[in-house]
Specification:
By secondary structure, this protein is α/β, with parallel strands linked by helices. The protein has two domains: 142 residues, Rossmann fold, CATH 3.40.50.720; 186 residues, Dihydrodipicolinate Reductase, domain 2, CATH 3.30.360.10. It is 32% helix and 24% strand. The protein has nine helices and 14 strands. Helix 4 crosses helix 6. The chain is globular, with a radius of gyration of 20 Å. The termini are close together.
Amino acid sequence: MGYKVVVAGATGNVGREMLNILAERQFPVDEIAVLASRRSLGTEVSFGDKTLKTKDIEGFDFTGWDMALFAIGSDATKQYAPIAAKAGCVVIDNSSLYRYDPDVPLIVPEVNADAITGYGKKNIIANPNCSTAQMVVALKPLHDRARIKRVVVSTYQSVSGAGKEGMDELWEQTKAIYNPTKDVPPSKFQKQIAFNVIPQIDVFMDSGDTKEEWKMVAETKKIMDAKVKVTATCVRVPVFVGHSESINIEFEDFLDEDEARDILREAPGVLVIDKREPGGYVTPIDCVGDFATFVSRIRQDTTIENGLNLWCVSDNLRKGAALNAVQIAELLGSRVLKKG
């Protein structure tokens, strides 16, 4: 016996990936509904070997549905998630709306699976920010061994993190570079993204940090350990898919780079590719379409007593969004609903 599953926002990048991953991982689905806004009503999307037509989320009756994977942004989630939850359908939300709500668990299954037990307070589970998700998958096994004191992370985030509009803008601006008669001014991003990097993701806060940087700090503390100090610099780069992170870690106890490499090789969701030779590391283009969080360039930081550096790469549409949501659904099914 399987589950009755809703995917809301099924026509977007993340919604389509959710459907792909549900099919790829053979999630036990008895019935599936794909929802979108009224302007996308009737748009066809793929689910395995099936083609489904989207229904209007407005007025959809969530009664009798087991779980709903939301990829519709904070504004729409604020309107429809409480309706679904009240109807008894567990919402797994990819927006930032509920991530910092103390009554809503924020889950990365490889890191804090036990937090699933808290879902019942609001019948909602939050999916973390894409840059946070891959980082904590790499950090948690090391934290368990040597206790992390401080993390300094710089991100190199792809334009797909800004949705289809971000990908289109990079494509159009790149073409315009070779066509001097065509001008594509910034629209989705603050400055030209083609052949450039932009040290701003989301809005600036009073502290001088951007909201994306604040998210990485707050979410790491909620998911992994409130005592860990985190400072982040988040940068948008002209890459279509795949987020990269340069991570500097300070531990309470000494951790040798070889032991760290062995620990990460055994860690769930992590794939280590770390050869000290040209090309012996993973780049964003290598990780597209893969489920893993890749770790490379593991080495001691000799400037502090107990330090390590590493390079972390993942497909942000997968582990950073859709895959993590499906893994939460699997966790919900195996530990709570127990139908599949």
